[in-house]
């Protein structure tokens, strides 16, 4: 469906052409306009904004109406309907807009259209690709020459390519050719060899000499003509570009550059002026971070209270921390509490291949922010645009640096920001440019770490208050917080949602402990792979592997207590898993780390001890053991031979040279190998001393597939080092006891 554009009617030279065109073309144009649907006209009337042009539109439509009377009565009816709609539109326009000045809105359309045409023309003029399909000599001879489909051959001026012109309706590869000539092309090594080869092929095909395919050679001066045409085209493009930039500069639009009018230079920002419905009370944990960002609310609400004392209002805050810790949620809460517009944009939106686009989007973003001041500009994943400058001079790197330079200028340059607070978030602050982190741009750097035990409990209580629970809210939050160390707020929200989905699938009226246990297991170990059926031999290997982990962890002193062990395959691993109750311990000594290495090696040692062979199922355990050993020796300095020195661990993807010599690297590898061997020997010794318990535990796993803490206690007896683990175990029992004593209550709202 066609739609009118007010800018089309606005230009007088277009209307003059209506009188100079041929009468037939005018009739065709009128009929084309007359096919507009009445709904499209009404939509045009509703969406129009420049009321000052309506009288001009009405006059032109009257002319169209008079022309319709000589062409078609039906078209005349359509035009009369347009006139009635526009008259009603004009009569109902607001009085305050009757004297509104004419703004050049239509000119922006022509400027954008001209920019697109200019870019397309430059691409077509200087494109080196050949759109003609390329074929080999054998295909040309077999599919075209032999079947008599060739009308003529044209050799280009450079004498290296021959173009094939086929007869009308020619069939090649069992398909009829309908595209415009030349239809195909193939490469040649020279004119003489090409002619000899062509004549020889036609003789072999027994073609009469009078029916030989004609060969035409393009003149050699066509190269000069091509050069001249490209040169003229380039000059025309530059001329149009000059006139366009001159017109923009005369009207004072943008900065006079071609990118200032492009639609893709506009910042892809989302402006939120309504309330975000996110308050600080909805954010649990991170009390220190909330305390720091609350000051920005006071800055935006009452800046005079600070400026009258001579204080400078901070311009920005950088939120750093692992993914899912609530950085974006905290920025939304600041905007909601301050009751100011919130402009959200992602850092990758500034990254473009075309030069100058990223910088133009940065200028447009801060231009919008100045108009909406006081407001908050939030840049998510700022490391995509704020990466440290390397000075390599590569094209892509140069464009990123230009975008970063524009961001630095906008945040703290000649044009200062008044009433605009810039907040950004990243989980990689180490890669940011130092100029971006200095005071005056990001005055505050707020670190948001993973929540502690008490913070996780508070986060669970915030999320669980929106669910229907079978027990009191605190009965679930305390235990779930203990089961999820190292999990972020996003992980906690996912656990709550998975528990609700599991309860709904089982058609329960409320969420209970079984649903939460399922959710924790799914997030930690993955979903059960019920379709993955193991053989009896595989079940035995997995059972002894997991029994080795549990037994070693049960007997050693500095390991986390085991809550559950299963041999049911999960999506995050081919074997079963052993769920432990980890602690929020921050510091470890060498003995504690050694016991943890032994527990990780318990599965491999049990396989070797029972079956006299090893499998590939322990590859993840060995990776974690190796990483733990290298961390002790290379990072923590827990080795007498290497000494009290620390070097960062290098990843396999990093191409950075190691900051130490080859001799020291060899020594570190030797010490790691020695430490892992000692841990493996100690693990074997523990398993040999308790071989009967290992067998009993494995057979029970084969029979029941899942064992909880009470089942393990019944099979192995109480832990020999229960004093060091009693705090966690007692905490679990206390939570379970309080849950049973409370009984079933009404679902919480």
CATH topology of the largest domain: Rossmann fold
Total helix count?
27
**Count of DSSP E strands?**
15
Beta content comes to: 5-15%
User: How confident overall, as mean pLDDT?
Assistant: 75
Q: How is the biggest beta sheet arranged?
A: 6 strands, mixed
- Overall number of domains: 6
CATH superfamily of the largest domain: P-loop containing nucleotide triphosphate hydrolases
As laid out across the biggest beta sheet, the strand order is 7-9-10-11-8-12
Specify the helix fraction band. 40-55%
Enumerate the spans where pLDDT stays under 50 for 5 or more consecutive residues. Answer: 1-52, 93-105, 248-261, 738-749
Question: Which structural category do the helix and sheet elements fall into?
Answer: alpha/beta
Query: What quaternary form is this?
Result: single chain
Shape annotation: extended
CATH class of the largest domain: Alpha Beta
């Amino acid at each position: 469906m066609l739609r009118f554009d007010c800018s089309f009617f606005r230009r007088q030279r277009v209307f003059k052409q209506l009188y100079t065109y041929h009468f037939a073309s005018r009739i065709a144009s009128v009929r084309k306009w007359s096919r507009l649907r009445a709904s499209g006209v009404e939509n045009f009337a509703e969406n129009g904004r420049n009321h000052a042009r309506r009288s001009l539109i009405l006059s032109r439509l009257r002319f169209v109406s008079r022309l319709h009377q000589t062409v078609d009565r039906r078209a005349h009816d359509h035009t009369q309907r347009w006139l009635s709609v526009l008259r009603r539109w004009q009569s109902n326009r607001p009085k305050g807009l009757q004297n509104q000045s004419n703004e050049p809105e239509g000119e922006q359309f022509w400027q954008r259209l001209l920019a697109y045409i200019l870019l397309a023309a430059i691409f077509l003029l200087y494109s080196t690709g050949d759109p003609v399909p390329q074929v080999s000599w054998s295909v040309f001879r077999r599919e075209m020459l032999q079947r008599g489909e060739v009308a003529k051959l044209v050799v280009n001026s450079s004498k290296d390519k021959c173009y094939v012109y086929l007869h009308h309706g020619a069939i090649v590869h069992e398909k009829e050719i309908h595209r415009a000539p030349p239809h195909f092309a193939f490469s040649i090594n020279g004119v003489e060899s090409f002619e000899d080869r062509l004549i020889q092929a036609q003789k072999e095909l027994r073609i009469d000499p009078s029916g030989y395919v004609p060969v035409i050679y393009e003149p050699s001066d066509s190269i000069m003509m091509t050069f001249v045409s490209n040169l003229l085209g380039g000059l025309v493009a530059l001329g149009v570009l000059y006139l366009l930039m001159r017109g923009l500069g005369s009207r004072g639009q943008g900065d006079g550059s071609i990118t200032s009018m492009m639609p893709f230079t506009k910042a892809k920002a989302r402006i939120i002026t309504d309330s975000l419905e996110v308050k600080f009370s909805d954010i649990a944990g991170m009390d220190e971070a909330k305390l720091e960002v609350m000051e920005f609310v006071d800055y935006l609400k009452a800046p005079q209270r600070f400026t009258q004392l001579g204080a400078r209002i901070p311009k920005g805050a950088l939120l750093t921390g692992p993914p899912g810790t609530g950085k974006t949620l905290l920025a939304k809460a600041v905007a909601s509490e301050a009751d100011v517009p919130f402009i959200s944009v992602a850092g990758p939106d500034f990254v473009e291949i075309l030069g100058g686009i990223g910088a133009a989007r940065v200028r447009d973003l801060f231009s919008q922010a100045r108009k909406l001041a006081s407001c908050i500009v939030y840049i998510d994943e700022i490391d995509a645009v704020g990466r440290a400058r390397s000075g390599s001079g590569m094209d892509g790197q140069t464009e990123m640096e230009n975008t970063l330079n524009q961001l630095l200028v906008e945040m703290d340059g000649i044009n200062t920001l008044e009433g605009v607070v810039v907040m950004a978030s990243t989980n990689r602050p180490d890669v940011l440019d130092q100029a971006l982190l200095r005071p005056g741009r990001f005055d505050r750097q707020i670190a948001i770490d993973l929540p502690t035990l008490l913070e996780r409990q508070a986060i669970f209580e915030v999320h669980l208050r929106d669910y229907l629970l079978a027990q009191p809210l605190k009965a679930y939050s305390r235990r779930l917080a203990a089961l999820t160390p190292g999990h972020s707020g996003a992980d906690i929200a996912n656990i709550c949602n998975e528990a609700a989905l599991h309860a709904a699938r089982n058609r329960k009226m409320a969420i209970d402990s079984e649903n939460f246990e399922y959710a924790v297991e799914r997030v930690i170990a993955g979903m059960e792979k019920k379709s993955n059926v193991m053989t009896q031999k595989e079940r035995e290997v997995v059972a002894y592997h997991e029994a080795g982990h549990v037994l070693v962890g049960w007997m050693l002193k500095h390991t986390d207590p085991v809550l559950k062990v299963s041999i049911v395959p999960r999506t995050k691993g081919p074997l079963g898993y052993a769920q432990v109750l980890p602690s929020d311990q921050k510091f470890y000594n060498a003995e504690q780390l050694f016991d943890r290495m032994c527990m990780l090696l318990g599965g491999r040692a049990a396989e070797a001890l029972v079956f006299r062979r090893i499998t590939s199922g322990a590859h993840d355990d060995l990776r974690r053991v190796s990483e733990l050993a290298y961390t002790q020796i290379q990072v923590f300095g827990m080795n007498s031979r290497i000494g009290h020195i620390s070097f960062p661990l290098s990843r396999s993807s990093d191409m950075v040279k190691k900051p130490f010599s080859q001799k020291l690297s060899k020594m570190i590898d030797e010490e790691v190998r020695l430490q892992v061997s000692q841990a493996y020997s100690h693990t074997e010794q523990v398993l040999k001393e308790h071989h009967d318990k290992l067998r009993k535990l494995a057979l029970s796993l084969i029979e029941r597939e899942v064992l909880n803490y009470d089942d393990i206690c019944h099979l192995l007896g109480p832990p020999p080092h229960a004093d060091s683990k009693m705090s966690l175990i007692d905490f679990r029992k206390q939570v379970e006891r309080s849950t049973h004593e409370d009984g079933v209550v009404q679902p919480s709202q």
